[in-house]
Design goal:
The complex is a heterodimer of chains A (about 325) and B (about 270). In chain A, about 45% of the residues are buried. Chain A contains 13 helices and no strands. By secondary structure, chain A is mainly alpha-helical. Chain B is α/β, with parallel strands linked by helices. In chain B, about 30% of the residues lie in helices and about 25% in strands. A 6-stranded mixed sheet of chain B has the order 6-7-8-3-9-10, with helices on both faces. Chain B has a 4-stranded antiparallel sheet with strand order 2-1-4-5, with helices on one face. In chain B, strand 9 (about 215-220) and strand 10 form a beta hairpin. The longest helix of chain B has 16 residues, at about 180-195. Classes of the chains: A mainly alpha (about 325), B alpha/beta (about 270). The interface of A and B includes residues 4, 87, 227 and 228 of A.
Chain lengths: ~325, ~270
């Protein structure tokens, strides 16, 4: 009927509009700052611009834009995966404590071992993976029940938050500052050298997520229905969790904990176009657009101050949640 | 007649011990599902009939014993391969929010699809056939959210039929339906059995429906099979009292000439 015809039209518009919006915003952010014309930016990309402009565009601005898009897509997809698995809009890696686990590991690396940048990346990776494993194992009881997984995640997160506070209180001023900067989540000073290592895991995980997305939709109907249709329930769930954790871990290792993109992107994309088949790619695209927009805002809104992008995403998330709560409470 | 089924049944269970955690529900339970029959399992609440169905459909792994499907242990198959041979309507499923009826029915084609494979003409035919059989064609473009309980149940059944499996297991499919839709559904099941050549196993609560539509009736109590066979051959007042603890008289159903159970109240007992 009509409703579905218009829903399909909306799907198409969203599926075309989101990449275009990403592209436009990417171009804007290549040109903004010490302002360039679009022509100059294109010249730089083709390598025909003067050297200083070429370096500024391709070595400073482009890596940052590319990182924002890549990490945003990864976070959006990982949020979509966890929300589908938990059948709960709060089931996202930041609520489940995986980010907090990364923070703890980084604090331990900095405060206790005086680790440098490489150690921080490694610790963040290990922290996400370790906290995910602990949550998964504690939630395991003859299989995984989504609700138990999310409750255990929240409990682990609370524990880790207090551990982090304790670590910071005992730290030297300098290490506390380093850790504090990292924990804000920032894309400042992104270079190609920093992005390349995370590009591969994120790309692989995104492809894996796409390959699993049919099973993911069937799992939403309940374990029994999915199994009856031939989905290996626990294996699929483990693979999906693994994919989501890789996405979160890679993003966190590259830029620090960037909260709320994973939580909010799938919700926004669902409001733009409710699509069963495209839910995952649309959430990834929305995540990419959101993180890029947040980063542009972080750079441009409070000149001469540059905010860490994590601060802006937390604001976006907070405003979104309050808006959601207000709307729900008005409905009643 | 069917009391002794040949050992060649496609689906059978050997000496199952079934339970959840420490609680054993059935011990040493064996059953042969006769090919080409409409088997109905009845029994009081908590007698293990749904648990047996879960074990037969590999939703639940028995603590001991084995379920055999086409001569191989069911757990040795890839779960997708089982889904090409055996369809199951579980007691409860969640419809994912805003989904078109036709899209939900199409999910029944999952076991026949490969990774990234495209929708083919055979899938389309199976879905169309399943929707015709269950009378949900005119609902195709509606959202599942907007359906009544009875319509929704028929859509779920259409999804299972779209799987096109020779074996069909249904756990209390008539729950949520009014009496007219219950009879509609049971007639559909009988038709699938007689004309479609499906082997069906159905858990039902209503004894009279069971007697009327089953070609093979299995009565369970306390995790054991008390009696099995054609309803007319096994259903007696004594059996009903033994299985359900209910005193009754059995008369001939004037329409189908199967046993009709009329319970006795306290005053008559």
């Amino acid at each position: 009927m009509n409703r579905f015809a218009s829903a399909r039209a909306r799907q198409t518009i969203t599926a075309v509009g989101l990449p275009l919006a990403c592209l436009a915003l990417a171009l804007y952010s290549l040109c903004a700052g010490s302002t360039l014309g679009i022509g100059q930016a294109f010249d730089a990309l083709r390598g025909t611009a003067p050297h200083n402009i070429y370096v500024m565009v391709t070595q400073w601005r482009l890596p940052r834009v590319a990182t924002a898009l890549l990490l945003g897509a990864g976070l959006g997809a990982s949020g979509a995966i966890f929300q589908s698995l938990m059948r709960n809009p709060l089931g996202s890696p930041d609520i489940m404590g995986f980010n907090t686990g990364a923070h703890s590991a980084v604090l331990i690396a900095i405060v206790l071992f005086g680790g440098g940048p490489t150690a921080i990346v490694g610790a963040a990776l290990a922290g996400v993976i370790l906290s995910a494993v602990v949550v998964y194992l504690l939630a395991w009881h003859n299989g995984i029940q989504p609700f138990r997984l999310i409750i255990i995640g929240i409990a682990i997160r609370a524990l880790l938050v207090s551990l982090n506070t304790w670590l910071v209180v005992g730290a030297s001023l300098e290490s506390a500052l380093t850790a504090g900067l990292w924990s804000a989540g920032s894309l400042n000073g992104m270079t190609w050298a920093k992005i390349v290592p995370v590009t591969l895991p994120i790309t692989i995980a995104l492809i894996l997520a796409l390959a699993l997305s049919r099973r993911m939709r069937l799992l939403e109907m309940g374990d029994d229905a999915a199994c009856a249709l031939g989905v290996p329930v626990e294996t699929s769930r483990l693979l999906l969790i693994l994919t989501g954790v890789i996405l979160t871990a890679a993003a966190t290792a590259a830029a620090g904990p960037i909260s709320f993109i994973a939580l909010v992107a799938p919700q926004i994309s669902r409001r733009l176009a409710s699509s069963q088949t495209l839910a995952l790619p649309l959430a990834a695209l929305t995540g990419a657009l959101l993180l890029l927009a947040a980063d542009v805002a972080a750079q441009r809104l409070f000149i001469p101050y540059q905010l860490p992008v994590g601060v802006v995403t937390v604001c976006i998330g907070g405003i979104y949640l309050i808006g959601l709560l207000l709307r729900e409470s008005r409905k009643k | 007649m069917t009391a002794l089924t040949p050992p060649s049944s496609r689906l059978r269970a050997d000496n199952l011990t079934l339970g959840y955690q420490r609680k054993i529900i059935a011990r040493d339970l064996s059953i042969d599902i006769p090919d080409g029959e409409l088997t109905v399992i009845i029994g009081p609440n908590a007698c293990g009939k749904s648990t047996l169905l879960r074990a037969l459909s590999r939703l639940m792994r028995p603590e001991q014993g084995r379920v055999w499907l086409d001569g191989r242990a069911i757990n040795d198959y890839a779960t997708k391969e089982v889904a090409r041979r055996l369809g199951l309507l579980p007691q409860s499923s969640n419809a994912p929010g805003d989904i078109r009826v036709a899209d939900l029915v199409a999910r029944g084609r999952y076991p026949h699809q490969r990774l990234f494979s495209r929708w083919c003409a055979e899938d389309e035919r199976a879905v169309a056939q399943a929707m015709r059989d269950t009378g949900v064609v005119e609902l195709a473009d509606r959202s599942v959210d907007t359906l009544s309980g009875g319509q929704r149940q028929r859509v779920w059944i259409a999804m299972v039929l779209a799987q096109q499996t020779p074996l069909l297991l249904l756990d209390e499919p008539t729950t949520w339906l009014d009496i007219a839709h219950q009879i509609d559904l049971l007639e559909l099941l009988r038709e699938l059995n007689r004309n479609g050549g499906h082997t069906l196993v159905v858990v039902l609560h209503d004894l009279n429906h069971a007697c009327r539509y089953a070609s093979h009736l299995v009565a369970m109590r306390g995790g054991r099979i008390v009696a099995q066979g054609p309803p007319a051959a096994i259903v007696t007042a004594q059996l009903v009292e033994q299985v359900f603890g209910l005193r009754c008289i059995i008369i001939d159903d004037p329409v189908s000439h199967t046993p009709l159970i009329v319970p006795l109240g306290r005053a008559q007992a």
